[in-house]
Structure formats: structure tokens, C-alpha cells
Amino acid sequence: MTVVWANGRLVAPDEPAISALDHGVTVGDGVFETLKVVRRQPFAMTRHLDRLERSAKGLGLPAPDRARVRDACAAVVAELTDDAVYRLRITLTAGQGPLGSDRSDGASTLLVAASSAPAWGGGTTLALAPWPRNEHSPLTGLKTTSYADNVVALSWAKKRGAGEAVFANSAGRLCEGTGSNVFVVLDGRLLTPPLSSGCLAGITRALVIEWCGAIEEDLPVQALHDADEVFITSSTRDVQAVTAVDGRPKPPGAITAQAAQVFAERSSGDVDP
Predict the structure, then answer these.
(1) How far apart are CA 207 and CA 37, in angstroms?
(2) pTM listed for this prediction
(3) pLDDT digits 0-9 by tens, 111-126
(4) I want to staple 243 with a disulfide (CB 3.0 to 4.6 A). Which of 97, 123, 170, 206 is the partner?
(5) ∠ at Cα 221 (219, 227), nearest 5°?
(6) Contact 66, 47 (CB under 8 A)
(7) How far apart are CA 26 and CA 87, in angstroms?
(8) Using the 8-state DSSP alphabet, how is residue 144 labeled?
(9) pLDDT tens series, the chain, 273 aa
(10) Phi then psi for 188, rounded to 5 degrees?
């Protein structure tokens, strides 16, 4: 099931809803958030709207109208007819613009859509991407619609039999996945790269740090191979065990299992932590 809201109204998923000149289409000039919806309740909405606002500010876009975004999300969620797990996508673009990098002064475009969430399964495998993440980019830390780097890297990983690609940054330090944050267990310590590595400030990442006592630490990319356990997090994966890195087995362990259990229990008890 797919439900779409575009600039003030519900539309059919295949109905044209924005201009072909929208800057989000022509040059990727936009920001977005993806939330998990469980039993028709979006999870961590406030944290996601906070990050949407930070991303818009970082891209130089007007701050989104939070009340309008919430109303749009509510309109979409109200159309969901079952208690399946859904992925709710909020997209904010610069609106209609010229066929180039300059912006116009027109209104922003707001889109909200929901569709069934991926069935991630019990675990995944990682492959280290051959391209570095640029931690000095003006887009670092922003969740923008300029996602081609991630599309290319994920396609590369899947052709090699992996479920997710992981980036080092330009200094050769561990950074992030194409749509996930990375955690490793070294000598019994649960660690994750700091935001200074260039990784996105993931919502699930932040909650795992708060709820499971994970520590931010600058890590060499070799930590992926040296770690006793590895797992990744995202808004739809929650805590997902990694079973192999670059084709080498990486059996999930007790710390990964505990983090997954804590996250499941805490998130089920509070939909907007």
C-alpha cells in the first residue's frame, strides 16, 4: 500500500504532483526524513522534525512549517488500513526553480508518502565502499535528497553480495553506511564513529547511544574487521546484526543482541522519545 500527500492534498501514487522544474528534481535541492510507522503511529516524530529543520537550515532553505508537516503526516497515516510496519517519507524541496543551480524565490515543495517498510530480516552483510565520504563537504551532516553517492555505493555492494556499503572518510576513518550508522564492539566496548567523521546524526544512532551506553570514538576503518561484533542502525532497521564484513564471517554476539532487545523494549514503550 502506498499513500501520497503533495502540497496540501492526497494524490494517487502515480498522479503528477509537482513541477518538472522543481529544484528537488532538477538538482537535488531538498532535504528529507524517513520515519518508521508501527500500528499507525510514527516513531520519534519530534527528533525527525528537529533534524529536518537542521538540514533545511544547513541547505539554506526556509524552515519547514512543523504544524503543516505534522498535519500532512497525520493525513497520510490516517489512510493506512492495517497495522503493518510502514516507511513514512517527508521531503522538502526548494520548489520550482531554473534549470541550474540558482534558486527562485517561490514557495517550497512539501511531499509526504508512506509505503510498506522493507523486511530486513535477522542480519545483513557489509562491504567497504572504494569511495571515501567527504567529511568536509557543505552537505556533511545534512539529510539531503542529493543521494546519488549512496545509490552508486549500495548498488556496488549488492553486486558483490553484500546488503549494505560502508564508507571510510577522506582521512581513512570509519564513517557510515549508505543509509545506516555503524557500531562495533571492541574489547567489550560498544563504539560508534563521532559526528566529526562525517556521518549523519542518525535518530536510532542517538537512541542507542542514550539507551545502551555506546561511546563515540574516532575509529580506523580496520575496526570493521577487528571488531568482535558489528551492527548497523537506521530508522527502519532499528538495530540490525552484521554477519559478515567484506565476505569474512562476523558472528553476532551478546552485546548486539542486548542492544536490539533494549531498543525494541524502549521504543515500544515510547513512540516519541
Answers:
(1) 17
(2) 0.95
(3) 999 999 988 878 999 9
(4) 123
(5) 75
(6) no
(7) 25
(8) B
(9) 899 999 999 999 999 999 999 999 999 999 999 999 999 999 999 999 999 999 999 999 999 999 999 999 999 999 998 888 999 999 999 999 999 999 998 899 999 999 999 888 789 999 999 999 999 999 999 999 999 999 999 999 999 999 999 999 999 999 999 999 999 999 999 999 999 999 999 999 999 999 999 999 999 999 999 999 999 999 999 999 999 999 999 999 999 999 999 999 999 999 999
(10) 80, 0
| 204 CB-near residues (< 8 Å, 6+ apart) | 181, 233, 234, 235, 237, 238, 239, 263
Burial of 31 (0-12, 13-18, 19+ CB in 10 A): buried
Q: Which residue has the cell 536490539?
A: 260
Task: Name the phi and psi angles at 12, rounded to 5.
Answer: -65, 145
Closest CA to 233 of 200, 195, 268: 200
